[in-house]
Structure formats: C-alpha cells, structure tokens
Design a protein that fits this description.
five-stranded parallel beta sheet, alpha/beta, seven-stranded mixed beta sheet, 18 helices, globular, 486 residues, binds flavin-adenine dinucleotide, 19 strands, FAD/NAD(P)-binding domain
C-alpha cells in the first residue's frame, strides 16, 4: 500500500506538492474548501461577456513553472501558453509623465534614457546592485528550503551584498535623484505585501527578478495555470475533494494521523501537506495558542473588477497610477492600518493582450488598491461603498471622466473576502510581511512543527507570489519524500 498524503487546499502551493507526490507514487487526496482549484488565483466571469483574473495578473520566473512540469516528465507548453509581455507595466506619475517598464533590457534602457536622461548610469549601477542581491540570496532564500547549516556554509561576503540594514526606499533614494524613479522602484516590495519604508533593502532583489526574467501572462487567463496544475496532478492519480473544509489535523504519538472534515468525517493518512495559510494551520487546525501575535501579516488588497464599455488607448495591459505622496500612503496602510486617502491604483486589462477577455471594443479592468491587513482600525462593512466611490472618483480625476457611464459590470473583493474564502491570515494577499529584516528567518518552515506535517503556501518559506508558492510546494514535497525515504 502506498503512503497516503492529504493535501489541505488546492492553491498553487498545494497543487505543486500534489503533482510531485502523486508522480512519485504516493496516494494523494486533496481537500479544498471551495468548489474549484487555484485558491487566490481566482477568476470572475460576468453574464455580459467580461472575464477577470481576480488574483494574480502578472507572473515572472517562468522557469519555476517549467521545472514543475519537467520534474514529472511533462512539457508546460503542452498544457498552457505562457505569453511573454512586451512591458511589465506602464507607470503614470502624479506630475503627468509616464514611463513604460519594457521587459527587454535594451528597450528598458532606452526608456530610462528618454524619461530619466540624467539617471542612465545610475540605472546600470542599480541593476548590478540588484543582481548582486539576487546572487547572494538565491540559493539560501529562494531555491532551497531554509537551512541554517547551508547558511553557515555561505560566503560571508554575501552578507555585505544583501543590504539588510537600509530600507528599500533609503537604498533606492541613495541611487537616484529623480523621485519618480525612486517611486517606481519603491513599488516592488509591495509585490510581497511589504512597505518600502520598512522592509529591508534586500527586497531590492525583486527589480532584478522582474527585469531579468520578464513578465508573463497565461493565454485564456491566469486561472489556466491552476487548471493545468490540477490536470497534471489528476494524471498521476491525485484525487480532488471540493467543498470539503478541513477543520482539524489529528495527531497520534506526536505524529499526524489524519484530518477531521467540517462534516465530522475523519480520514486517516501518513502525512499532510497544508496549503492552508501556515498561521491558520497552526492556530486553527492544530490549536496552537497565540501564534497570530508572533507574525505581522502582509498587506491585503481591495479589488474592483469593472466591465468598462469603451477602450482607452493610453492604457497598457498593466498600469499603475501613483499617488502624489507615497510615504503618506504607506503610513496610512502599514501604521494607521487605514485605506489610503489618495491611493496608488493598479489597473490590469488582460483584454489588451487576449481579445476574448472582454466583448469587442470593451475592456475588463481589474483595479487593485493596496489595503491594510484586517484589524479593528478599519471596518469594511461600514466603509466599503464610500471607499469604492473614492476609487471611482479618483479614476475619473485621472482622465477617465466618463467612467461612471461606461461601467457595465462591477464586482468588489475586500480583505474580508480573502480571509473568509481562503482562510488567509488577517486577509493578507502574500501571507507574512517582510517588513522586518528577520522575516526571512522567522517565516514558518516547509517541514512543520509536528512530525508528518509539511507546509506549502505563501505564508511558509520562501514566501508569497505564484513562483514562490510553486517552490514552496516543491520544498514540502521534497522534504516529505526525504523523510519517507522515497
Ligand atoms: C488580488 C491579488 C493579486 C495578486 N497578484 C499577484 C500577481 O500579480 N503575481 C503573483 O505572482 N502573485 C500575485 N498574488 C499572490 C498569489 O495569488 C498568491 O501568493 C498565491 O496564489 C498563493 O498561493 P498559495 O498556494 O499560498 O495558496 P492560496 O491561493 O491561498 O490557496 C490556499 C487554498 O487552500 C484552501 N484552504 C485553506 N484552508 C483550508 C482548509 N482548512 N480546508 C480545505 N481547504 C482550505 C483555500 O480555499 C485555497 O484554495 C495576488 C494575490 C491576490 C489576492
């Protein structure tokens, strides 16, 4: 009889582990509280022809996804089409200027020279600096489970390169005089739910990752990636049990022995991979007290999916409209835990790259505002409508004055929804914040605290974002296989 592994949750991290374990001959049963796979990689479909990626909209590090398929003898291209984007994002500054972050490095250099002519040499220095952080962190913090013995063996010079004692903003301001370029680079820590004014400059690794590895879209919508993962897991015999929420992890003699479902049914197993948020797993499924107090959640998001009955030529697939006072915006989100009074607005329009995503001559706007993680400081039930109106009014003031009359479909997603639907820690998008320079060391490990438990999610090592959680699933599966000597 093969060992039975239960995977709690069919988000990308859980699916990545399920694929590898099923391929290695384990009996794999995936229990998912919702009716479909993908977790935060969700979609919204309207009755009038609009489709939205209502979670991730841009992916990078394509080799992480390719490796998953290759590791089980398959080719990603037979399952989905990763579409390289011409530009990762178009940035609109509050002074009316704009800048396009082209994915081709030479084109990006030309754009830097066009918009920031006095900063071209500084950009070259910055790119090398960001690359050095990548080189110094990749092995220990990205591509392997966290291991102190490996850390101890690393080159001490790497410590100098990771720039852990500045904040990302202070480091960016050290390189550039043009505050718009600093603001552009300050955006990157938000891709792991952190503040550039608090997070260590080690997060300046992210610009290198985006510039060197490019930005990608999945044809037909991001959800196709999750569907491909599910199909692959099923091809190797994993079974999926949807609308089945795990209420508790059962243990016997200090080792996991099974799970208890919401229905009361218990199911035995030899090991568990939890793709449930790591903090929720320990606090709610294992009853660990006070763990929530030990961690700061990453920021959350307020989403508006807007079916817009017109086309807007000045917008690209990915767009950011910056706030005029970035520091104030982050103080509101991370210190006051309030929604920003003048938010930076991200708009992703997949119909710009994939015609079928909206009716002809129309656009599917996925509008995302960074939001504080859930706390008593901000009451979503009371404030949601007023905040929605603030966002639409701000969009109107940014040059979309006819927007009111163009909205043909609308759906909001709040931090409350992320918490209720996915058990995400305080409604966070990326799990645990990296606002503290110790975060990378304190993040829950992939081998859990109970024998036979493994963690694969954005709140576990190596962190949030679609490539990272795919790696999280890889590490959880590999540690499990090593422990079971399979
Ligand atoms: C609005 C938004 C925008 C984003 N943009 C990007 C982006 O552009 N690029 C990018 O790379 N990343 C982005 N992300 C982040 C990315 O979506 C996540 O980091 C990643 O998808 C999380 O995957 P995960 O495996 O940690 O689990 P999740 O997606 O959180 O999935 C966990 C699954 O477990 C299930 N579950 C939880 N508890 C239980 C239980 N007790 N029993 C049964 N099932 C359970 C949940 O229902 C869920 O399906 C975005 C996220 C959001 C919300």
């Amino acid at each position: 009889m093969p060992n039975h592994v239960i995977v709690i949750g069919a988000g990308l991290g859980g699916l990545s582990a399920a694929i590898r374990l099923a391929h290695r001959g384990f009996k794999v049963s995936v229990f998912e509280k919702n009716s479909t796979a993908g977790g935060k990689m969700q979609e919204v479909i309207s009755d009038n022809g609009y489709r939205f990626d209502a979670g991730p909209t841009l992916i990078t590090m394509p080799f992480v996804f390719e490796e998953l398929f290759k590791s089980v003898g398959r080719n990603l291209n037979d399952y989905l089409a990763l579409v390289p984007l011409e530009s990762a994002c178009k940035y609109f500054f509050s002074d009316g200027s704009s800048f396009t972050a082209y994915c081709d490095l030479n084109r990006l250099r030309e754009e830097i020279a066009r918009v920031f002519p006095s900063e071209t040499e500084n950009f070259e220095r910055y790119f090398q600096y960001s690359k050095k952080i990548y080189d110094a962190t990749a092995e220990n913090f990205i591509y392997n489970p966290l291991s102190f013995s490996r850390l101890l063996k690393s080159n001490p010079l790497d410590l100098l390169h990771i720039d852990a004692f500045s904040t990302t903003h202070a480091a960016n301001a050290r390189f550039f005089k043009d505050s718009r370029l600093v603001q552009f680079l300050d955006r990157f820590p938000t891709y792991v739910g952190s503040s550039p004014y608090l997070a260590p400059a080690t997060l300046n690794v992210i610009p290198f990752v985006e510039i060197a590895f490019g930005g990608f879209y999945v044809k037909g919508g991001m959800i196709q990636l999750a569907k491909a993962y599910q199909r692959l897991a099923e091809e190797f015999g994993a079974t999926f049990h949807f609308n089945q929420s795990v209420q508790a992890i059962l243990t016997s003699n200090g080792k996991v022995s099974g799970v208890k479902l919401e229905s009361g049914e218990t199911i035995e197993c030899d090991a568990i991979v939890s793709n449930d948020d790591a903090i929720h797993t320990y606090a709610n499924l294992l009853g660990e007290k006070r763990i929530e107090e030990k961690y700061e959640a990453s920021c959350s998001g307020f989403v508006l999916c807007l079916g817009v009955g017109a086309t807007h030529e000045r917008l690209a697939h990915h767009n950011i409209f910056f706030a005029s006072d970035y520091e104030k915006e982050f103080a509101e989100i991370f210190e006051q835990k309030m929604m920003p009074s003048e938010p930076t607005i991200y708009i992703s329009i997949s119909a710009k790259s994939d015609e079928g995503q909206a009716p002809e001559g129309k656009e599917n706007w996925f509008v995302l505002i960074n939001a504080p993680f859930l706390s008593p400081a901000y009451d979503w039930e009371k404030n949601q409508t007023a905040y929605r109106n603030l966002v639409v009014n701000r969009l109107k003031s940014l040059g979309f004055s006819s927007l009111d009359g163009q909205i043909e479909f609308e759906r909001a997603i709040t931090p409350m929804d992320l918490k209720m639907k996915f058990n995400s820690f305080r409604g966070s998008i990326y799990g645990i914040s990296s606002n503290n320079r110790m975060s990378a060391f304190l993040r829950p490990r992939n081998r859990g605290k109970v024998k036979g438990l493994y963690l694969a999610s954005g709140s576990a090592h190596p962190g949030g974002g679609t490539p990272m959680v795919t790696l999280s699933g890889k590490f959880a599966a590999e540690l499990l296989m090593a422990d079971f000597k399979v």
